[in-house]
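Subject: design request, 468 residues
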């Protein structure tokens, strides 16, 4: 006898709730069919369901996301970096207190030796006809952030080595729930013959019909739940082994939205707006935001970041602020709306010559107009860089292109090419190759759990208050 069983999964929703009612529609229909046929099926999420760029998530510190997963009937989840490093230790510790599903993440550890009661390294499940399945969750090791929040993420291969032998002896099938990214997933498949399926995320890759490496099928469903993934495994009870492994993703952007879920989200949004409705400051003149010009609000925010981090200088890109602020009461909701990014301040060490190069690159047209997606940035374009603690003199070529003529310290002294300077900026620039000198800096001091919008609130209260 052959038995088929099914895993439906989502990954990297990033609180894109406008798509969530379609997720629920798809899952209801798919699971109803499997249940009608008496086929074993489970629903799982691979992390980054939470993203504090959305007001619902911000207002509830992710608890609303957990309720949505509960309501949708999820069975198992692992955590992504957005669950892990964008909250305080206590907020993550209590995130899943009300979860109706199980959370597996084998490489996450609390450094105070108090593990959350919901956290399990592995979970074992069984099909209707007795096939035993072991699942292990893994998340990306952003320890530069985790350790500041009193967590530690162990290396994924070290953890797999620890648990793989026990899994091989206790279950028939091994599935890795991986918020590690496609490259690591492929290496896991190559290293571990016993792994049958790797359901992935983190790097937002879309594998429409899976990828087969060694004995494993690898799959992932892109981002924002435009797709839902399905893994189908076929077990031959006579041969006592898997005889087929399939993985597919379905485009669900055309589906009808589940009405009950839409109503739930409507209520959640109203509650979030109420929770974020506290007035931070009253202003008597509008604060203009312009992505390509110097503005008082961005200059003052950059000044605040320099002072708060005690850096020699600071630099922030204008694209961090999405909208201008009108006259009147400014609430936490307003601040979140115009600065939604889960971005922390960071101080990096740069030699003088590296600092000058970073300034030069940041004022190029290509940099300012870059429509960045990712690295915590939730805006449209990077925009012009603002500076505090240094003076930047620019000129223009005949073709109209701006260029940097010289960079001086605040007191007018020239920058020493060989001296080390402590530069505060957005942690976005410590990833990838946007500003290579920043990303490659040997010293990075991240400031958590504060986001840049927390310093924006501080700036507004200190620099722009109006009392009638």
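Subject: RE: design request

Done. Sequence follows.
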């Amino acid at each position: 006898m052959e038995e088929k069983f099914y895993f439906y999964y989502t990954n990297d929703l990033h609180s894109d709730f406008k798509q969530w009612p379609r997720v629920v529609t798809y899952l209801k229909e798919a699971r109803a069919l499997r249940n009608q046929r008496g086929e074993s099926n489970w629903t799982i999420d691979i992390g980054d369901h939470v993203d504090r760029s959305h007001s619902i998530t911000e207002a509830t510190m992710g608890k609303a996301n957990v309720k949505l997963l509960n309501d949708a009937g999820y069975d198992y989840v692992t955590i992504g970096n957005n669950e892990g490093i964008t909250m305080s230790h206590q907020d993550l510790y209590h995130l899943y207190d009300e979860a109706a599903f199980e959370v597996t993440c084998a490489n996450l550890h609390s450094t105070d030796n108090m593990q959350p009661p919901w956290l399990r390294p592995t979970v074992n499940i069984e099909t209707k006809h007795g096939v035993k399945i072991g699942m292990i969750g893994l998340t990306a090791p952003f320890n530069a952030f985790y350790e500041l929040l009193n967590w530690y993420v162990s290396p994924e291969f070290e953890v797999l080595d620890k648990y793989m032998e026990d899994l091989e002896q206790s279950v028939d099938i091994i599935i890795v729930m991986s918020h590690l990214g496609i490259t690591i997933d492929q290496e896991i498949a190559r290293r571990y013959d016993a792994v049958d399926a790797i359901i992935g995320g983190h790097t937002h890759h879309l594998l429409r019909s899976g990828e087969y490496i060694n004995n494993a099928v690898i799959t992932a469903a892109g981002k924002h739940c435009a797709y839902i993934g399905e893994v189908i495994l076929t077990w031959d009870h006579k041969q006592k082994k898997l005889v087929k492994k399939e993985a597919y993703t379905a485009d669900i952007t055309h589906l009808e939205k589940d009405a009950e879920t839409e109503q739930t989200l409507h209520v959640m949004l109203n509650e979030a707006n109420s929770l974020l409705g506290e007035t931070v400051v009253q202003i008597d003149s509008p604060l203009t935001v312009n992505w390509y010009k110097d503005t008082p609000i961005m200059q003052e925010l950059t000044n605040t970041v320099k002072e708060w981090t005690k850096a020699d200088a600071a630099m922030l890109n204008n694209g961090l602020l999405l909208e201008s602020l009108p006259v009147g009461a400014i609430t936490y909701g307003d601040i979140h709306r115009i600065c939604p990014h889960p971005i922390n301040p960071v101080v990096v060490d740069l030699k003088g010559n590296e600092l000058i190069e970073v300034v030069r690159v940041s004022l190029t047209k290509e940099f300012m107009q870059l429509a960045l997606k990712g690295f915590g940035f939730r805006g449209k374009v990077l925009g012009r860089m603002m500076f505090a603690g240094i003076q930047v003199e620019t000129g223009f070529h005949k073709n109209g292109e701006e260029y940097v003529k010289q960079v001086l310290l605040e007191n007018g002294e020239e920058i020493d090419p060989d001296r080390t300077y402590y530069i505060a900026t957005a942690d976005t620039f410590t990833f990838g190759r946007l500003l290579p000198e920043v990303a490659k800096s040997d010293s990075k001091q991240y400031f958590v759990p504060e986001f840049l919008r927390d310093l924006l609130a501080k700036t507004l209260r200190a620099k722009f208050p109006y009392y009638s």
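The chain has two domains: 2-271, 278-463.
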